[in-house]
Write a structure and sequence with these properties.
Number of domains: 2
Oligomer: single chain
Strand content: 25-35%
CATH architecture of the largest domain: Roll
Distance between the termini: 23 Å
Shape: elongated
Radius of gyration: 22 Å
Length: 236
């Protein structure tokens, strides 16, 4: 965003025209010439410390110790469920493999198997998760299947609440070991002012007024007429 140096007198510009210090702080800088958050690398997508949550179309290997007929490979259906012998349909999406194993043991216990010992291993995944929080109807963790955009992510979380601030949507992302945040305006996206950005596994999306949005307060106060995303980089 080249015009940042013109619009924000509170910013201390670097001599080389690179990232700009926000409010004189060496810890937060504006990423100049950025049209949006950069895409994460493959390493970023695989290196999250968050436990893996099962999602639609994932393939699992389920073993019930000592009972070969109940040990099988299954694929989660589009609604996040699986069908298992004896006990029928089980909700799997949103659970860790360990949590699913506990649920299967509980439902097999007593009635079908005296002392079931179940293990669940992920064989193949087509989904990872994002976090959607703030002023949405159903905040939580949601699987990313295929290409997902910011608007789709918000819709997946039940849409925005009645009094949500649509101009205050922050996406947090880790790229090459660096933490970035982008401030987006859903109203501008809807009217075509800029492209609905793609979101990726491990992104954290916060809708509405929040501590996350206040990171951008100095920028917004300096120029409330910004019509492009604002991207900042957190320095260690």
């Amino acid at each position: 965003m080249k015009r940042l140096s013109i619009l924000f007198p509170v910013l201390l510009l670097s001599a080389c025209g690179g990232p700009t210090v926000l409010g004189g702080s060496p810890d937060i800088t504006v990423v100049s010439n950025a049209e949006g958050l950069p895409e994460p690398t493959r390493v970023d997508l695989l290196s999250s410390n968050r436990p893996y949550l099962i999602g639609p179309f994932d393939k699992l290997k389920i073993d019930v110790f000592g009972i070969e007929d109940l040990s099988k490979e299954v694929q989660i259906d589009a609604s996040g469920r699986l069908s298992f012998p004896l006990i029928g349909v089980v909700e799997a999406s949103g659970r860790t493999p360990g949590e699913l194993a506990d649920e299967l043991e509980k439902r097999l216990q007593g009635r079908y198997v005296r002392d079931p010992q179940v293990t669940v291993n992920l064989e193949e995944t087509v989904s990872q998760v994002i976090t959607v929080d703030g002023q949405v109807d159903e905040p939580g963790l949601y699987p990313v299947i295929g290409r997902m955009t910011l608007m789709r992510a918000v819709a997946t979380a039940g849409g925005t609440s009645e009094f949500a601030k649509l101009n205050d949507v922050v996406i947090f992302r880790s790229v090459n070991g660096e933490q970035l945040a982008g401030l987006y305006n859903l109203k501008d996206i809807r009217r075509g002012a800029y492209t609905d950005p793609e979101v990726f596994a491990n992104d954290v999306i916060v809708v509405g007024d929040s501590q996350a949005r206040r990171l951008f307060r100095d920028l917004i106060q300096a120029s409330p007429l910004i019509t492009t995303p604002l991207i900042i980089l957190f320095r260690n």
